[in-house]
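ok so I'm stuck.
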Amino acid sequence: MFVGIDNGCSGGITILNEHAGVILHIKTPVKNCLKYTKAKAFFNRVDVIKMREAFLYAGVDSFCMIERPMVNPVRFNASVSAIRCLEATEILLEERQIPYQFIDSKEWQKVLLPSGLKGDELKRAAEQVCKRWFPKIDIVNADSMLIAEYCRRTKK
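replied:
not stuck anymore, here's the structure
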């Protein structure tokens, strides 16, 4: 099995078998929680129980690729959220003993998407490629699907 994770609370998880059959394709399970600061605020965190259940679909011989999180001091809150999500994901992968590696978006995009795309064009292209390759699947996160496909092609 090949696991692709678009890291972050708005990301997704896809598990493909060796024939590119979709075993699981979901948004990253999150829950909205009261923030830990004194000010009244809420934020999303990984729902560890639901994510643990999702990883049960990954077989014994699975391999996972996780998109490297965006860390940018200008976008501090988004960076902290991405890193918190990554930590929860890594703990669960280690718990299930699923080997994993980090991957930059440019690496899989270079192989699976047309060249010369930028910004929103990349998201639209990823959606369109996924709809062609997986026409029977309701695409909830194209990046996780393409990361899983890239993983399948390179780790087969």
